[in-house]
Amino acid sequence: MEIKILEERTNPLLKRHELRFEVAHATAATPTRDTVRTELAKAVHAPKDRVIIERMHPRFGTAVTRGEANIYDSAEAAKTISRDHILIRNGLKEKEAKAAGAPAAEPAKPVAPKAEATPAPPEPPAEAPTPATHPPKHAAGEATGHAKAPAGEAAPAEDAPKKAKPHAKKE
């Protein structure tokens, strides 16, 4: 495994040096974040607890991984400035476990005795189901000029679909 530093910047406001690096791993799989941190710490002559790898991207089809890392001036600065999920990925902080279920120390609430079951009120008589469509925006025949036939009667001839006329064959 060979580490090559591509770019280095100093960020005095955040008390760190920002690096872009490339790792060549010709005969092995993509190296773990921990092994890259160890090798990067050796390359820049800094303690491993001050080296934080932000991201690593393996290049598809090649044995090269590129990434970004920050080397902080102190371990305390690394833990206060870096985001929590990055510290967890680098092994500098433990992941907080989510509380599963209710805590055991919570006292049980008293349950009131249930009253006798009362009969449910009678349901209203069933009506004919109504269609699930929206009501028309205008009354029949007002704005459109179409007249609708009362229920049970045939529709006027103008609303009937028109039949296609056969085309004359050309010779």
Task: List the keywords.
171 residues; alpha+beta; 4 strands; four-stranded antiparallel beta sheet; 21% strand; Alpha-Beta Plaits
Notes on the protein architecture:
The protein has helices spanning 33-44, 75-81, 84-89; strands at 2-11, 16-24, 51-58, 64-72. By secondary structure, the protein is an alpha+beta fold. It has a domain at 2-89: Alpha-Beta Plaits, CATH 3.30.70. The chain has a four-stranded antiparallel β-sheet with strand order 1-2-4-3. The longest helix has 12 residues, at 33-44. It is flat and about 95 Å long. The model has no long low-confidence stretch (mean pLDDT 79).
Summarize the structure.
The chain is an alpha+beta fold. Helix content is 15%, strand content 21%. It has helices at 33-44, 75-81, 84-89; strands spanning 2-11, 16-24, 51-58, 64-72.
CATH superfamily of the domain at 2-89: RRM (RNA recognition motif) domain
CATH class term of the domain at 2-89: Alpha Beta
Number of strands: 4
Outline, from the CA principal axes? flat
Write the element-wise H/E pattern from the N-terminal end onward. EEHEEHH
Uncertain spans, ≥5 residues at pLDDT below 50? none
Mean pLDDT: 79
Q: Which strands sit side by side, in order, in the main sheet? A: 1-2-4-3
Report the CATH topology name of the domain at 2-89: Alpha-Beta Plaits
Helical residue percent?
10-25%
* Beta-strand proportion: 15-25%
Count of helical regions: 3
Distance, first to last CA? 82 Å
Structural class: alpha+beta
State the major sheet.
4 strands, antiparallel
